[in-house]
Model the fold of this input.
Amino acid sequence: MERTMFDLESQIRKWRRHIQSAGSLGAQDVEELESHLRDTIDELTERGVNVEEAFIVAVHRMGDADELHHEFSKLPTESVWKQLLVPAADEDARRRERTEFTVVLMLALLGGLLGKLPAVFGHTMVEENALIYARNAAFFAFVPVAIYFVWRRALSWRFALIASATFTVFAVLVNVYPSYEPFHNQALAVIHVPIALLLLLGVLYAGERWRDSNVRLDFVRFAGEVFIYAVLLGLGGLVLTGVAGAMFILVGIDITSFISNWLAVFGASGITVVAAYLVEKKKGAIETLAPVLARVFTPLFALLLLGLIIAMVVTGQAPSEDRELLIMFDIVLALVLGLVLYTMSARDAEKPAELWDGIVLALVVLAFAANAIAFSGIIGRLVTYGFSPNKAAALGENILLMLNLAMLGVGYVRFVSGRTTYQSVIEWQMRYLPIHAAWAAFVVLAFPPLFGFI
Done:
């Protein structure tokens, strides 16, 4: 029987997913292991060993040779890498973990100090200053994460300088631009600054491999897990501060001001880097729940979109007549795209099409239909009320989202019908993803002067 051609990159991707799912290695450790694996494969192939045998021997060498020897002789290529054994951490590893934990605590404190900067300039935590804190929240949260990536991955000064320059330009312009009523551009900055800066964090996360589609997809999964951790930590913090406030009131001390001006600021600003650290270290079990959550919410969001479309047809309610409805449509569609991306990151790219892919395709089709309704609503409001920063930003986002969903739908149809691989769908989507960040950056940096800083 003719032997199937060996796909080295496919096997390395499977090997990476397996050791990542083990939960004991961080992203930097995985990168170092993969680099060592590839070096060993190159060394063996230069000696005349074929690629498949070189892969098996390289994986074999990275485990415990004595324990693997028996299994190595009887397992097929597809299974050998699954026998990889990760040795127990030694004293040096434990020392590195303590150092990393200390660095993360310091970065969390840095986030809190950054969160107090508006107060230094006289903008205390009162309602009239809410927009100031909101439009800078991404800087408070993301700067510590960026520093953490640069430190943990030992990135070159080139990455550090690019990150510093990007954060500085965005922070200065967002805060120096004048703003007049009705303050549309400030509200747009609150929404779009995090989207734009996520691209920068993705580059720092990937390092020298930031052009690799699979590494970009790893960052999508990482970002989703960080979000889950941050929400859980935030809910825990709310409970803790609520209980603490109630108990101090019972003993005659009101700590409400301390909670709102200090604990809330430091907690909200430092929570993201702590969540990023937990995801990197794979502490707890929530990373095993994340793909399950994606599977639960994908059909639920599909039913939600279907219900919205039917309700609008039955009631005759046009989104152009209701600004709040149009905003909610856009929020739901953004969540749907994020859910599809996260579902994509949790899927084994080597598996053939299955029923689940049909469910995701149905969600994409429904999202495209809902986006078309939202797009018509935006056009209707533009015709009726003219251009404004909000409507122009929504128009651009809907066009980009419609193109994204259309091409994603085409990719899924081709994959389900067996005309392309899932990896090609991933690669196309990962190439398109930075366009959303580029549009967000354009909205933040160019819209204020274009629309007279309103």
Observations:
- Residues 88 and 194 are 38 Å apart (CA to CA).
- Residues 213-250 form the longest helix (38 residues).
- The chain is about 80% helix and 0% strand.
